[in-house]
Write a structure and sequence with these properties.
This protein is of the alpha/beta class. It is 28% helix and 26% strand. The strands form three sheets. Strands 1, 2, 3, 4, 5, 6, 7, 8, 9 and 10 form a ten-stranded mixed sheet that branches. Residues 29-49 and 166-178 have low confidence and may be disordered.
């Protein structure tokens, strides 16, 4: 009888232990989510964009056939959800159906493991594909991970894609490790800075596209930032593909001198060969998502030699956009002030500083024909052409053409900026070297 009792007690203990294990496993699975819900039950206070510590993106390898750059929470207009979906910018040499097999997992504060969520894949716009030296075709993609907890802000995302070719050619042990997991920080939505006193608020973000090579771009980039600042733009993202230490020092001095100037430098370490159109598509999407995530209603991407200039006697980009009475995606004409043209000779417009925009005042209509820069202004409204009499982009890069007649019909003189030479030099001239006597 005692043996039967002991056996029953042993069996009861084993059953109890098994039930405990089942409970413990299930508890661990939901513990992280419960902790997050408890932690984020109330809305967080908004963080000022200028006070936020930047966590810059960088290209991450998911597999030999896919790379990802940045992750952004996307919010629906009028919705109180913090992060209903996550948008990830990527390039891949795979078809959409193959990328659809990617695993997306979101990380939340206090969670002990990530949460797997559904993923959808779309090729970016009409961007052309790019072929690298190995004849591999690369295309830009947008990956969308649908959050299961729209009211909670994830801080990171893990993406993995098993390399099937490696799996077929490797042992099972090696194949098990071939699904490398890339990790991206998720850009959290914050509120734009609202100035105090009588200062006018700014809601415009300018993004400077990465240069195509690594030549010294110190003064073109510095002139771009400071002239845009002169025209009322306060927020800048610079995509770095060769920016110099000298520029970083100069921008640091500018930020100290102008308290409301905010500059962030984002690495652009592209891992594969992409055509110019594909790069522009990725940069434009990243810029737009960053701007909207911080509550800014206007954003645009320009090259280091391009300045968005208000016309008709207006003093700021914001005023010019408001005067257009259009919203949505605005198409702004580009005027090619080719560097091959002779410099300004009129004494009353001549600058004492090495500021290109004050030295060149002739643009070529033939070389400018059909060139546009897209400005995302407010929401909705479709796509609209804006009059060049209201706002235009001045491009001061070279045109690789030395057979231009400054007095020809295709050459148009525009002194919108050079007329303001005295004010411009007083405002930012000390950042540029003096011109040598001629």
């Amino acid at each position: 009888m005692r043996k039967v009792s002991k056996l029953a007690l042993v069996l009861a203990a084993i059953v109890s232990f098994l039930f405990f294990l089942v409970y413990k496993i299930r508890y661990d699975k939901i513990y992280g989510v419960l902790e997050v819900l408890e932690t984020f039950g109330q809305a967080d206070k908004a963080v000022s964009a200028s006070r936020q510590i930047l966590q810059p993106p960088t290209w991450q390898r998911v597999s030999d056939n896919a790379f990802v750059y940045s992750g952004h929470c996307t919010r629906l207009p009028g919705s109180d959800d913090i992060c209903p979906a996550l948008t990830v910018l990527a390039v891949a040499s795979l078809e959409t159906n193959d990328l659809q097999k990617m695993t997306c997992q979101l990380w939340y504060d206090s969670s002990i493991q990530p949460i797997s969520v559904p993923i959808t894949v779309a090729k970016v716009g009409n961007a052309a594909t790019s072929t690298d030296p190995k004849n591999i075709v690369w295309s830009p993609y947008v990956l969308t991970c649908e959050s299961k907890f729209a009211a909670i802000m994830p801080f990171g995302v893990s993406l993995s894609l098993r390399d099937e070719s490696s799996s077929r050619s490797s042992s099972s042990k090696t194949a098990a490790t071939s699904a490398f997991s890339a990790y991206l920080h998720i850009e959290a939505p914050v509120l734009a800075v609202q100035p105090s006193g009588n200062e006018q608020p700014t809601d415009i973000v300018a993004c400077l596209a990465p240069q195509e090579n690594h030549v010294d771009s110190t003064y073109p980039a510095l002139e771009n930032v400071l002239l845009h600042y002169y025209f009322g733009v306060r927020e800048f993202y610079l995509y770095d593909n060769g920016l110099t230490n000298k520029l970083m020092v100069a921008l640091g001095q500018a930020v100290q001198q102008f308290s409301d100037l905010n500059v962030a430098v984002l690495p652009w370490n592209l891992p594969v060969v992409l055509d110019k159109n594909s790069i522009e598509q990725i940069i434009a999407n990243d810029c737009h998502l960053r701007a909207r995530g911080r509550g800014y209603t206007t954003n645009f991407v320009v090259g280091l030699n391009q300045i968005l200039v208000p016309k008709s006697g207006l003093s700021s980009v914001k005023q010019a956009l408001e005067q257009s009475q259009k919203s949505g995606q605005l198409l702004v004409d580009v005027h090619k002030f080719c560097s091959e043209y002779p410099e300004e000779q009129a004494k009353k417009y001549k600058s004492s500083r090495m500021i290109t925009a004050l030295q060149l005042n002739v643009y070529n209509t033939d070389l400018s024909s059909g060139l546009k820069v897209k400005v995302s202004y407010r929401s909705g409204g479709g796509q609209h052409q804006v009059s060049q009499d209201e706002i235009a982009v001045h491009d001061y890069g070279n045109c690789n053409n030395y057979d231009m007649d400054v007095n020809g019909a295709e050459s148009v003189r525009d002194r919108t900026i050079s007329r303001q030479a005295v004010q411009v030099e007083k405002f930012l001239g000390n950042f540029f070297p003096l011109r040598t006597a001629s």
